[in-house]
Backbone:
């Protein structure tokens, strides 16, 4: 089968054997999305060799449990052992020996087929089209914030950065009724938020030490610095992005102000599908372009350009 | 009156006028404790000019409300406005225009007298002697951890550092029934903990990524690094110390592991007095030496020596 292969920071479109794992579902990919993590992996953020890609919607071809066959599905990306301390304590996304679809020791979804344990699969409701369902994984990641902290309707919430993931974070934060403002870099990001009535704010207008919750979604030290200054004493700073390299931080004011900093990664799929089914969020506005798998190298070039949000690859 | 004055990082024993604030209680100091923050202020950690000291027990001499006169009291160190956003939202210790006893724009307690608003005062139960009551402020700071996060009896908790504040943190953490281990530098710290049945652990024996909660109480980058490595995914790292200078931190693993970092400062006085009254904690084991106010410069020299815990100054 055709697949986008990453090796030594080089991507190539290759012909590789179709995966065979009798204890997992074989899934024919229908559509897959390019995420910032994919672009970071290509840059060498984390050493990975194999098929890239982890956001997808597909159809089950074979499965240990035949009831899955023919189902249109999305899949959680962490394949877990079910036996380690993290798994046994209800933190499967932190499984100590996990493989991660297209990220850690598990071939991903920019390919004709992939495999996943059936435990990872979620049926997609018929009313949710592929171009929505393919956003389930990043939408779940946005919802992880809501799993971790309480966001009150009266909270002043600042979102720093509204790129691929930030736009979905903005849409889910807005559902809480909180007083949300987003700091964006590009006009098109602002325009997208405006279509949903989400306010943006200029950096100069961000009142320092006034925001109950700040979500940092830029992954840049500049974004972190803006977030730090905006958060109020006893406020919560959610780190929704990983950072290339190290941050140098003066922790004493964070201690004096009793700030909480919380890292946030993968989230729950079922509620994300529920939001899509009820059209409470609309990720399709993020689609910048669609490519066929044969053009996936071009798709990656496109996705890496500034100002591009979601690039989809369909099979 | 005699007072320990700090100016341009120089301490001196001075004769200064007795304070006069008709809207505050005048308190005759009975005993006061030297805290690491005092030593840091002398080193120039934060610019401050005035009488040093914020841990005390004293007797009210005059007060706007006469019912306080003659009472033996301890006092909360943050004097607040009651009108700012922080005050009105139940975060008075973060009052935006606060003065802080012996730390920010308010003369402290290494003196014959000090003043505080009566709202800051707490009566000391008769059964709590001065040498216990003088620890109310740092004991309250230890309890702030319990105000901020839930510590379950089944939690594995690592305390990094058991100096002046760390010893009190150890005693209050132990009350939760959690599986507590402390990493200490000095034998005498270990011995003190052993008298209360609190276990210590060698650095080499600290399992990485295994501790539900880690309390960092060293204020050193080395301590922070140990804490970082010990905390489990989705664990909580409590920062109980301020840091001179900046820390350089690789945040990506903190995001991937969804770690929570929380700064912790001043805590609640009433429960601290309750613990002292019921003898659930015993801070008096920390007393390394007692000096008279006239010898307070010598007391500071003593307190700054390695291996010294609490040095008290009595009036």
Residues:
């Amino acid at each position: 089968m055709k697949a986008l292969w990453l090796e030594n920071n080089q991507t190539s479109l290759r012909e590789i054997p179709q995966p065979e794992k009798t204890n997992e579902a074989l899934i024919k990919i229908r559509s897959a999305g390019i995420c910032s993590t994919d672009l970071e992996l290509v840059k060498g953020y984390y050493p990975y060799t194999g098929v890239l890609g982890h956001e997808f919607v597909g159809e089950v071809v074979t499965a240990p449990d035949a009831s899955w066959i023919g189902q249109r599905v999305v899949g959680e990306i962490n394949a877990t052992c079910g036996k380690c301390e993290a798994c046994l304590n209800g933190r499967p996304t932190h499984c100590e020996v996990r493989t991660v679809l297209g990220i850690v020791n598990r071939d991903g979804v920019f390919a004709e087929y992939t495999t996943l344990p059936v435990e990872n699969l979620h049926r997609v409701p018929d009313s949710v089209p592929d171009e929505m369902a393919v956003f389930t994984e990043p939408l779940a990641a946005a919802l992880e914030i809501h799993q971790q902290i309480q966001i009150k309707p009266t909270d002043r919430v600042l979102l720093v950065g509204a790129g691929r993931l930030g736009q979905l974070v903005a849409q889910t934060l807005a559902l809480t009724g909180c007083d949300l403002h987003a700091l964006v870099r590009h006009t098109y990001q602002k325009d997208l938020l405006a279509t949903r009535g989400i306010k943006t704010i200029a950096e100069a207008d961000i009142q320092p030490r006034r925001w109950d919750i700040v979500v940092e979604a830029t992954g840049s030290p500049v974004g972190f610095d803006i977030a730090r200054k905006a958060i109020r004493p006893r406020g919560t700073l959610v780190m929704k992005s990983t950072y290339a390299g190290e941050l140098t931080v003066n922790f004493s004011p964070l201690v004096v102000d009793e700030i909480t900093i919380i890292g946030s990664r993968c989230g729950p799929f079922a509620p994300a599908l529920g939001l899509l089914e009820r059209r409470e969020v609309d990720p399709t506005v993020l689609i910048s372009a669609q490519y066929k798998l044969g053009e996936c190298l071009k798709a990656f070039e496109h996705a890496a350009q500034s100002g591009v949000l979601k690039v989809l690859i369909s099979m």
Q: What stands out?
A: Chain A has a mean pLDDT of 96. The first helix of chain A runs from residue 36 to 43. Residues 141-263 of chain A form a domain with the Rossmann fold fold (CATH 3.40.50.720). Chain A touches chain B at residues 85-86, 91, 94, 96, 144, 148, 209-210, 224, 232-234, 239-252, 254-265 (CB under 8 Å).
